[in-house]
Amino acid sequence: ILEALGYIHNFVGKGHIDKEKRIMSYITPSEAFIAEFCSTDEEVQSAIAAYNASLQTIILRNEYGKAIDYQDNKNIKNARKIVEKLNKINELYDIRDGSGNVMTNIYSRIFNKDFEHGGRYFHSDALKIKHKKSKARLDITINGEQVVEIDFSNLHYRIASLMEQISMENLPLDVYMDILPERLQNDEHRELIKLSINILFNSKTADSADRAINVEIRKFTVQGWNFDKSLSTGKKVREYIYSMTPDFLSCYCRDDSFGLALQNADSYLAQRVIEKFVDEMKPILPIHDSFVVRMSDLGFLENAMGDSFREEFGIASLIPLKMSWKDANVLQESKILA
After folding, report:
1. Residue 180 and residue 191: Cα distance in Å, rounded?
2. Residue 53 has pLDDT above 70, yes or no
3. pTM reported for the whole predicted model
4. Of 64, 163, 183, 256, which residue is 20 to 30 A from 51 by alpha carbon distance?
5. pLDDT category, 254, cuts 50, 70, 90?
6. Cβ atoms of residues 215 and 236 within 8 Å
7. Would you say 289 and 152 are in contact if contact means Cβ atoms under 8 Å apart?
């Protein structure tokens, strides 16, 4: 009814078996609604504050993806406080996508089964942008300023090495490329290896991993990608990764949701980075293990990510990062150590 009257815009979400690919349904007020019911800026800000206060910023889901009750403790209360600060600060800024549409970046942290699994930040408009080919997140502006995105290089491998007491110092800067023989070191084979390793971290059995990798191979083949015969099936890819990463065999195809444990670790790492930004009242858009900020906050983000990793995992090493931005609409990338 409200939509028919022109009072709201209704955005219908999309379900998906992969929780990370689910898109939330939501509504936003139209200009007609604001003109009739929110005649002053104070009323608008009051409505926004009331909406933000009503949100569940820490959500625990059971194995079927349904939100369940939980008991608060000191850590959960602190995590909720940081998400609430993040949402409040981001809403103070004019954040727009590449088409000039105003974005709302209200985050929630979603845990799976218990607070030792999952915990990543979801629900922001920034996460809904289709980015893979167009790199459209880099078209976002914050108060009219260009943005830059920095992500941790091969983050789950680095966290897994620390969790499994494997020396992180021996990991190359680009694990996914280094696994490949020199003749196959290109973007297509690297992407296959990267996706396959993520599947191995998240699969419970080798057979299910093989099937999932086969699905990815078929998708790439439809797009015109060609893979070497040695990596032409899920089983071949899995066995090749096994042979090249023997120290990590204990991390693959486990029944105890090792992938969710890795996500839990990277979510607390992200919490540290975010906390440094909200303490300085700076806007930041977390995208799981990467962060989008104003170009003027580039140096602050580099230091925040490096320091947060060292603080979270108790090490002294420099941390490899990848920086992405656009110059005259052309993608630019740079690898750095923080």
Report:
1. 11
2. no
3. 0.82
4. 64
5. very high
6. no
7. yes
- The amino acid sitting at 58 is I
Q: In a 10 Å sphere around its CB, with 0-12 CB exposed, 13-18 middle and 19+ buried, how is residue 193 labelled?
A: buried
Instruction: Please tell me the distance from the alpha carbon of residue 114 to that of residue 60, in angstroms, as a whole number.
Output: 7
**Over the stretch 16-43, which tens digit does the pLDDT of each residue have?**
776 656 777 888 888 888 888 876 777 7
Contact 70, 60 (CB under 8 A): yes
Per-residue pLDDT at 52: 65
- Residues with Cβ < 8 Å from 77, sequence gap 6 or more? none
Residue 169 has pLDDT above 90, yes or no: no
In the numeric block, the tokens 């590449």 are attached to 98
Strand-pairing partners, residue 302, are none
Q: Are strands 108-112 and 58-61 parallel, antiparallel or unpaired?
A: parallel
Dig out the tokens for 69 from the structure. Answer: 């009750």
